[in-house]
Amino acid sequence: MTELFSLIDMPKDAKVFLLKELGYDSDGIYAKHKNGTIILDRYTEEPVKVDNMIILPGSEIILDNNPLSVSSYLEEFGDVL
Amino acid sequence: MSSEDKDPLVSATEGVVRGVLGWTEEKLKECVEKFRNRDLVFIRDKDTIQRAKDVRKKGEFAFFKHYVKGKEFQQYRIQFQLGLTLRSLEKKGLDFSGLKNTIFKKYDKQGLHIAQFVQNGIFSKYVGNLLEQDNTEHEIPREIIKVLHNIESTVSFIKKTDDIRQKSKEIVSKIYATSPQTFIISSSGNEAMKKCRKIKVIVMQDISSSYDDELFSSKHKEIYFLNRVNDLAD
Fold it and tell me: Which of chain A's residues have a Cβ under 8 Å away from the Cβ of B16?
């Protein structure tokens, strides 16, 4: 069973490190692609903030933590969580 | 690579990581490894994920997705799940205005109204109403998709701020324009319910020769189904 690892109590620096380990970047506020462009939520098309991001499987999908994005993800990728 | 060759920003970040609340570089790398093996996902709070998962297990959604299949209706299935999420938040007394705004921003008024159609329990009552009208198994999905597609012309959500006369006129016009098999007038909350009753009376004065009305009510919601008489007689 997939482990759900909460980022809620993780310090910002650790989240930034995590993003970099996964091949992304951050200015400490927004999650960014390696080329410096801000990552937009796949479903809401809003910029993803480091404080509210979730990272899900499926080519490393970085989303904003909101019900619309989570439900859309589950509808697109099935019950993988 | 020597420490001098390292990106100073990365080095600084790693330095902080090593020291804060046990979030060591090694632990994070281990998490990344697990993530890549699909053994771990990074979430924020459990509630958002759990609620979305619970909604997908509900019988109401299972029924819906059984009839509303295919990629072209994926949007309806998402809106349906969001309606169940709104209901779950409402039942728990949690604020759902943020989610309503997010749905509106993404799907506009129609998408929000579909979600509210589910949130307020209108969908399940609508299906009961459909079955009572002797629809065949093949007609059910067609009728469900039709009501969602035409939600703006077949469902009216009464707000406490609505003008009774104006809203009644608007509903009568919609009914005359498309002559739907069923028109639904829905309200939630005491003030809206009072207005809804008055609106229903005015509307029925105009259309009573062609439509019958049926009321579904609970403590905080009133929903009127106006069913075309000819269809009932068939």
Answer: 11, 13-14
Per CB-CB distance under 8 Å, the chain A contacts of B51 are 67
**B147-183 pLDDT, tens digit each:** 999 999 999 999 999 999 999 999 999 999 999 989 9
The yes-or-no verdict on residue B230 having pLDDT over 90 is no
Q: Summarize the confidence of residues B178-198 as an average pLDDT.
A: 94
Confirm or reject contact between A34 and chain B (CB < 8 A). Answer: no
The mean per-residue pLDDT over the stretch A35-59 comes to 95
Q: Which residues of chain B make contact with A3, given a CB cutoff of 8 A?
A: 34, 39-41
Which pLDDT does position A16 carry in this prediction? 95
| Per-residue exposure over A21-42, b if at least 16 CB sit within 10 Å of its own CB, e if not | bbebbbeeebbbeeeeebbbbb
Where in chain B are the domains? 8-36, 46-119, 152-233
| ipTM field | 0.95
Which site among A6, A8, A9, A13 would you substitute to test the B interface, given the most B Cβ atoms closer than 10 Å to its Cβ?
A: A13
Residue tagged 């949007």 (tokens): B75
pLDDT at A1: 76
Answer CATH for B152-233 from 3.30.110.20, 3.40.190.10, 3.30.420.10, 1.10.10.10: 3.30.110.20
* Residues from chain B contacting residue A21 (CB–CB below 8 Å): 28-29, 32
Query: Alpha-carbon distance B204 to B171, whole Å?
Result: 10
Minimal CA–CA distance to B153: which of B193, B192, B197, B109?
A: B109
Which chain A residue's Cα is nearest to B48? A67
Ordered strands of the A53-56 beta sheet: A3-6, B40-43, A53-56, A61-64
Cα B114 to Cα B150: distance, rounded to the nearest angstrom: 10
